[in-house]
Amino acid sequence: MTDMSVLEIQNLTVRLPASADRDNAVTDIGFTVNPGEIVCVVGESGSGKSVTAQAVMGLLPRELTPTQGVTRLDGEDTLTASSQRLRDLRGTQMAMIFQEPMTALNPVARVGTQIAEVLEIHTKLTASERRARAIEIMDAVQLPDPDKMVDAYPHQLSGGQRQRIMIAMALVLDPSLLIADEPTTALDVTTQAQILKLIKEMQQRRGTGVLFITHDFGVVAEIADRVVVMQHGRIIEQGTRDQILGFPQQDYTKMLMASVPSMTPPERTPVGGPEALSVSHLDKTYGRRGFLSQSRIVQAAQDVSFVLRKGETLGIVGESGSGKSTVARCIARLIDPTKGSITLQGREIATLPETRLRPYRRAVQIVFQDPYRSLNPRRTVGQSLTEAPMNFGITRQDALTQARDLMSLVGLSPDALDRYPHQFSGGQRQRICIARALAVKPDVLIADEAVSALDVSVQAQVLELLDDIRERYNLAMLFITHDLRVAAQICDRLIVMKSGKIVEQGATAQVYAAPQDSYTRLLLDAAPGANVEFGQGSAVG
Amino acid sequence: MGPYLLKRLLATIPVMLVVAVFIFLLLRLTPGDPAAMIGGDYATEAQIDEIRQTLGLNEPLLTQFVIWIGNILQGDLGESFFFKKQVSELIVARIEPTLSLSLVTIIFTVAIAVPIGVLAAYRHGSWIDRIVMGFSVLGFSVPVFVIGFGLIYVFSLQLSWFPVQGYNRIGNGVTPWIHNLILPALALSVIFVAFIARMTRTSVLEVLGEDYIRTARAKGQTETKVLMRHALRNAAVPIVTVIGFAFAILVGGVVVTESVFNIPGLGLLTVDAVLNRDFPTIQAVVLLFSLVYVMINLAIDLSYTLLDPRIRY
Q1: Beta carbons of B221 and A57 less than 8 Å apart
Q2: B218 vs A95: CB contact, 8 Å cut-off?
Q3: What digits encode the pLDDT tens for the residues A178-191?
Q4: Is the pLDDT of residue A538 over 50?
Q5: Distance (Å) from the C-alpha of residue A164 to the closest C-alpha of chain B?
Q6: Which of A429, A504, B206, B308 makes the best surface tag, with the fewest CB within 10 Å?
Q7: CA distances from B62 to A397, B57, B66, B302 (A)
Q8: Domains of chain B: residue spans and CATH
Q9: How far is A230 from chain B (nearest CA, A)?
């Protein structure tokens, strides 16, 4: 068995710097990847899954040091290999693709050149041969028109295309091990489905062993042969896909799977409350026309109309570029709509000038996607929570009292008000963001991908909190997401958007059970592991 | 690109016009009469008046301005009051030393600052980084004349490697030309090296944290090529911006440096012209300098499109 494995990790321990919250990034882990096999390492953030991959590649950050164990690539230990030897192995015997295709490619170099660079480093091919090989592999990863695309720059390609370039770059020298670190997390569902299919195809055709890192059980269900579950740097359990998904032994694994929202929406009674917000024929056009410059016009939102009732959660789902965030930003008047009307508390606000809009700003509040960037790192939580109410004329003392109440409401200690955002975890920060939005007692709460950056277990808690708050304050909630599992669980009604237009809208259960538009069907089918139900603590395939 | 260039070139017209009005009024509203300067200590009131007549200085200000602008538009910069020559001839004669000094200084600066900045970023936190940063603070704080005299003392007076002062035209051969320029250019470049090395370090350090650097390493690329091919070009936009500004400051700063090193360029010409209230020469040189500023700025903006394909005008 040993000499068959592409990758064999034994007793690997990687030490964290002294300032960290635990001693080791990974502790005494061991697993193998065989040729032609996809091993998924699953875990939440901080589980040590990326550190494992970096240790194998010899790409650990300086502060992290492996203290024991071996990582054998085709029998050769990469932990003890010289840096020269590691450079030779990277790209030829082991290759890696990353999470963010938008930033993983050099923005100022042509994509063909970046693929050819691998050949330049490791082979003696001439420039024209390298180019020909680059075109060939681009064709193999099904990029359209590789003859032309070889000269494109990364920014001219879509996210999915860029990830294909990354895969082409990784596979051009037929490595025996491919490490994929969350390669589809940043992609739209339909693109994700295509990329997963491509990785599987390429891997089967070439007999590559794949170490696939993910936090998403849907993806695991889709492509894994074997699964390794990690938590806090230790392996919780490992086994075949069917063993782990069907009969998980450990509580942590069961909890993780139970946190994955079900694709089947529960029955909901329609909300019949009074109108909180109504949008009709909303248009947002980007583009400039000016002296001596060409006009380039993008219609980010087109003819968008809907009604949101008090106490109701209305979901907007769609892929990137569908215009869902544009609509949210128009409603909050963070950007000005080009045309159409937005009625809030019976008052037209789409065209209201800033000075007269101010009192209405209170009524619409947003919680954004990335809790790491949406709180000012130099201000205490207390300052963040009291700023908005004080802007609307509440005294400092009252605002502070209210902030303490809000902290308990979102499940945090009221005594933490004088701490700074970096002292909180991602999930806690998102709770703070929710508290901040609630501080001015809004009528409409917009959650713009508010749970997308969170781990599943934390996601489940934050979703519960949002639903609880909506009920308690009879809030109208506009829930924007690309995640169809999340949408299924929290939304009363659903709007499906594509290219700035609404293609379908209706009660959530109805949209999932009988989608009317072909695009909605496509989205539902593309959701990874769509036919697998994780909700019961074990998956039913 | 074409329309953008045209728009930017058209935009220089109002800028130059404002500069023209400003320098024209500044000269005429400050005390000091060129006619009296030319007439000398023993000229009578009538003689000075006559000189004023011939120079056209007794016309109304507006008339003088219109005549001046009209002549410039026809390519005539006027005749110097003091040197009794065409201003354009004076400028042509004096521009070579100024450009030589500025260019050689900028080349020295870039050749020293960019590599040490990259190195400091790559080994950030190490002793190399600390030395580079220490030098940078020192370079900022030591005045250029101290460095200049220090260099002259060591390399000219003690070692006799370089001449103390003066300038040799490039027409007389490249070796004597560069021989004369090395010390002043080195002295001048110190502060810019300090500045640009710091800028390079910050910029490269930021880029080194990017994902595509990790990608390049994952391909098995060597560290040198990771730095030169992937990091530096991505870090180039801010670096090129400050290099451009440094060049503009250099050209504008020649008034001082040419006096220190006794180099007969535009800077010395300006000093002479100012001392002698030589209106046409001062006006022409100031206009020329501002044109150079505007053009350098344009060149910086255009260079962005070469460095980064995402930037398009």
Answers
A1: no
A2: yes
A3: 999 988 887 888 88
A4: no
A5: 14
A6: B206
A7: 66, 11, 6, 37
A8: 2-73 (no CATH), 94-307 (1.10.3720.10)
A9: 24
